[in-house]
Specification:
The chain is mainly alpha-helical. It folds into 3 domains: 54-145 and 176-232, no CATH class; 250-461, no CATH class; 514-760, no CATH class. The protein is 66% helix and 3% strand. It has a 4-stranded mixed β-sheet, sandwiched between helices. It has a two-stranded antiparallel sheet with strand order 2-3. A hairpin with a 2-residue loop joins strand 2 (71-72) and strand 3. Helix 2 (21-46) packs parallel to helix 10. The longest helix is centred in the middle third of the chain and has 33 residues, at 298-330.
Length: 761
Amino acid sequence: MNWTNVKLILAREIRDQLRDRRTLFMMAVLPILLYPLLGMSFLQISQFMHEHPVSVAVFGAENLPPSPRLIDEDHFAAPLFASADQVGLLRVTLLPGRGDQKKAALQKAESGDYDAVVFVPPDFAGQLEQFHRLMTAARGQGGERKQRPARTPSRSRLPSGTTDVLPGRQDLLGRQDLPAAPAVEVPKPEIFWSKSSDKSQVASLRLDQVFEHWRREIVLANLAAGGLPAAAAEPFQWRKTDVAQESGREISPFWPKLLPVMMLVWALTGAFYPAVDLCAGEKERGTLETLLCSPAARGEIVLGKLATIMLFSMVTSLLNVVGMGLTGWLILGQIDGIGPPPLGAAVWLLMALVPMSLLFSALCLALAAFARSTKEGQYYLMPLLLVTMPLVVLPMAPGAELNLGYSLIPVTGVVLLLKTALEGHYLLMLRFLPPVLIVTAAGALLAIRWAIDQFNSEAVLFRESERLDVGLWLHHLLQDRQPTPTVAGAVFCGIVILLVRFFMTFAVSNLAEIDFDSFVKQTLVSELAVILTPTLLMTVLFTYRPRQTLGLRCPSAAALAAAPLLAVLLHPLIRLLGDAVMDLYKVSEPAAKSLAAAEQILLRAPCWQVLLLIAVVPAVCEELAFRGFILSGFRHLGHKWRAIIYTSIFFGLTHQVLQQSLVACLVGIVIGYLAVQSNSIFPGMVFHVVNNSLGVIVARWPALHDLLARDAAHPARFWIATAIGTLAAALVLYGFHRMSWQRSEEEDRREAILKAIQADG
């Protein structure tokens, strides 16, 4: 690696970017102007953001008690509000009652003439008055009983385990002979409102507060009539202490959630447009060929462009975050409950910006190198945002917290780490800092490797622009068929399977409500109709060598015999990985119930039928689709491991439960490797059958469960079996590695190019 060439390319690209006025405007001028303008707009709009009055109709106002008073003319009584300013927010209209007042109130609420309607039942005031008189009478009777000595049965006559007072006659302070509560059923007033109207929801909330104050006044009056103090309604109050304020680390939760998200979004967008200009833009200007003819190697060119994109990404993100922070300091800092952003946030954001800008810059560079033109490159921003935004927004979920599971998710772990640091939990942040850094660094290295591979591919760099014509494309697929599917055909097949599988989930019955016969029908429809049928149709329509496309070649006897042995040896490790994934990412309660119901259905069915349904049918259908059609298409990428991994990702996504998808993706890599090294689909199919069969057999045989279950009575057996099986499986995989495998034309061409580059180096 000649770093002088990298510096020269970096200087060249920075100079070219600074000559572009649009780049300077987007990077520097826009952040300086955007956020103050947004702040000014917020101040202007805030003038309209005040509470508006709502209209309330009252039926049966004549049934209200005179005291405590609820309504004064056209508004509710002022003592029922927390402040005098809130009195006018509820405008009251008293409607006369004719006939069925409750029905009339319901009709008024449904018509939308009023935001809410209150119905007071007939004789409501009379029932409240009767309740009040009974409380007063109960007070007098209680006083008479207090003058007479209470008759308490002796302890010797009480059954064992009872107290020495009569049940229901003792209060919390141990006093006896309290007056019994009057048995009067007071009719309930009703509030009619509509959830579909915002003003109606506001009216309902305000009415709840008013009626709660009014009800409290009535309760206090009844307590006084019963001879109890007003403190009986609230015997104690909570004392709350803000530990953040006491420790001097008070910060609004608004900023730890907003700042990391905005920083990462601007880091991504700040890297994307320079990357498009440095790659796709150079293709259009015709300057890329000159750069490729220079003495600089392809890796040096990538690093020079990557450093330029990363620099612009960091500057754009910093300027936007600083502009947003200053505006927030001046405007949002004056709002109660938000306050100004913390000054220490700049340090944490800057530390996280470097690796994230590196990751986003490498991804954008690889995508921009793949694009034929600037216009096509800009189209790739939306898919990249669609993939990144869920990872950025996931930490904002109520239950998301920094743990080992979330720290292993790219981008999400960084957002949660920043959020934890801004909240002041430094020990928790340091605990999960290593896994977050490892995942981010691994993602950045893979993205850089991908970008270098893009620049090493002449077919990618010098693709001609094409005009999309659906008719010509279909004609090309049907008339100019290839021996095996193209990469686009493989992607199309995988997407069709995923889409059909997604819509089929809404037509599937709940597993807790079906029997084994229905479970068989659902499984067969899922495997035969969703997976196998599209695969066979595309094989017939888009290829003219179905046997080569589906990998239906006769494998060697050694490969066919080693596949089931490998499945047996790896089964303890696969179970361990499944348990680890379940521990890291807990299954939701509905999914857990569905899985438990499916397990019970399979345990009650005959074993041979379950093996046929769970092991044989999925192995045949899924292997023909993924290690057959899709893997054959991805082999045209020119890299067998990339083809295996892409196929495994599609294979994992077809499993409905996310936790199962992660394990299935790892297992799919092993099966794909067997298919490539053996030049046949059958070893992978046998591995699939044995692996699924072991899951069924272990669940039915206690002896195998004790050997292969981590939570069995003797867990040491499980760890010993896992260690021995993993070592033996490594030897079997090494045997597959020694086999001679058939390369595709693209793989042969790539290997020849790499050998030529090494020879020149």
